[in-house]
């Protein structure tokens, strides 16, 4: 076995990388925390008032856009 030591080192390195990858790489919690506001018509979660205005203009053009103070 000419590559015995090299194989073992590669396996150990891969195992360390796998251990580092485990746990907590998901951003689902941070994303959900960022989407605090909801469209009053369709209840789509959005990040801020500016995006609500864009959403309302695009998806609900006949509806009136509520003032920003209603979302705080």
Keywords for this structure?
single chain, 3 helices, two-stranded antiparallel ribbon, 6% strand, mainly alpha, 72 residues, rod-shaped
Q: What does this entry look like structurally?
A:
This protein is mainly alpha-helical. The protein has one domain. Helices cover 50% and strands 6% of the residues. It is built from 3 helices and 2 strands. It has helices spanning 4-21, 28-34, 49-59; strands at 37-38, 45-46. A two-stranded antiparallel sheet has the order 1-2. The model has no long low-confidence stretch (mean pLDDT 85). Residues 1-19 have a biased composition (Basic and acidic residues). It comes from Rhizophagus irregularis (strain DAOM 197198w) (Glomus intraradices). This is Small EDRK-rich factor-like N-terminal domain-containing protein.
Task: Give the rounded overall mean pLDDT.
Answer: 85
What's the SSE pattern?
A: HHEEH
The value of Rg in angstroms is: 24 Å
By DSSP (H or I, 4+ residues per run), the number of helices equals 3
How large a portion of the residues is in β-strands, by DSSP E?
5-15%
Q: What is the CA-CA span between the terminal residues? A: 69 Å
Stretches where pLDDT is under 50 for at least 5 consecutive residues are none
Q: State the secondary-structure class.
A: mainly alpha
Number of DSSP strand runs:
2
Shape annotation: rod-shaped
Helix content: 40-55%
The biggest beta sheet reads: 2 strands, antiparallel
Q: How many domains comprise the coordinates?
A: 1
> How is the largest sheet built, in terms of strand order?
1-2
